[in-house]
Specification:
This protein is of the alpha/beta class. 46% of the residues lie in helices and 14% in strands. The chain has two domains: 205 residues, Rossmann fold (3-Layer(aba) Sandwich), CATH 3.40.50; 40 residues. The chain has a seven-stranded parallel sheet, sandwiched between helices. The radius of gyration is 18 Å and the shape is globular. The structure holds nicotinamide-adenine-dinucleotide. The site of nicotinamide-adenine-dinucleotide has 28 residues, from helix 1, strand 2 and helix 6. Belongs to the short-chain dehydrogenases/reductases (SDR) family. This is SDR family oxidoreductase.
Length: 264
């Protein structure tokens, strides 16, 4: 299916690796001019080159900016310029017992996971409405609807994104601008892979055994019973960024392998 995305311009936050990079790659493959973002210029250059080496004609730029502050978001807004598509992908996670999550942790999770998307959307939503076309996608998580006891602050930030996303969609009545969120489940990104490799090593297991046991005992409701690939999340994001998805607005789209036992 041609997603009709050729010539659009997209900004994807936190896109030097993981779901963000996979999304940038997928959009670049569809002929979108993609703007990547991360904090480290070296990693940013490498992320851009990995896309260009695969797609010779790809239009790829990057902006190094730390989005944990208003100043960092402003720096990105100024450098990236006008866009048709904004993917608020940036998100951090950290398992920590509730009793040990101090105020600074709560505020950091709110700044990075919620306010980065709020600040960028506040700027771009008005411009998209003025041009009467645009796509904003928040990468939330299954944790946004199934709050995790092992990282309460992360769950809070992911639920907040869902609320913001739906409310922004409500402001787009009658326009060709959509705002949706995507809810990935356990996805095999570099960070998750390294975390898991350590767990497996400590338990004296192979990666395959550890993955099998994780889904059997810790995520028994997963219908997929394996980690999701970043490209499998990116495929949904690319669709919802496309003109094809015009009738999908204000939605929370599940890409969580069926972990969430829910009819809708
Ligand atoms: P990741 O850790 O693999 O990638 C994070 C990216 O963000 C990197 O490019 C990093 O450089 C960048 N980054 C980190 N802090 C930054 C900052 N302050 N400013 C700018 N860039 C910064 O991430 P991921 O696992 O692919 O997660 C992407 C999104 O998907 C997040 O919102 C996460 O909550 C969500 N998610 C992930 C999973 C999973 O299993 N991986 C599951 C559900 C939801």
């Amino acid at each position: 299916m041609d997603l009709l995305l050729k010539g659009k311009r997209a900004l994807i936050t936190g896109s030097t690796s993981g779901i963000g990079w996979a999304t940038a790659r997928e959009l670049a493959a569809e002929g979108v001019h993609v703007i990547l973002n991360g904090r480290d210029p070296t990693r940013l250059t490498s992320a851009i080159e990995r896309i260009q080496s695969e797609f010779a004609d790809a239009m790829v730029d990057g902006v190094a900016a730390d989005l944990s502050s208003a100043a960092g978001c402003q720096q990105l807004l100024e450098a990236a310029g006008e866009i048709d598509i904004l993917v608020n992908n940036l998100g951090i996670f950290e398992p920590k017992p509730f009793e040990q999550i101090v105020d600074e942790d709560w505020l950091r999770f709110f700044e990075v996971n919620v306010m980065s998307g709020v600040r960028l959307s506040r700027h771009h939503l008005a411009l998209m409405k003025a041009r009467n076309w645009g796509r904003i996608v928040f990468i939330s998580s299954e944790s946004g609807i199934c709050p995790p006891a092992e990282m309460v602050h992360y769950g809070m930030s992911k639920s907040a994104q869902l609320s913001v996303s739906r409310a922004l969609a409500e402001t787009c009545t009658g326009t060709n601008v959509t705002v949706n969120s995507v809810l990935p489940g356990p996805t095999k990104t570099e960070g998750v892979g390294e975390f898991f490799a350590t767990l497996a090593r400590d338990a004296g297991q192979t990666l395959e055994q550890a993955e099998h046991d994780f889904f059997k005992f810790a995520r028994p409701t997963s219908l997929l019973q394996r980690f999701i690939e970043p490209a499998e999340v990116a495929a949904m994001v690319a669709y919802v960024c496309s003109p094809r998805s015009a009738a999908t607005n204000g939605a929370a789209l599940h890409v969580e392998g069926g972990v969430v036992r829910s009819l809708i």
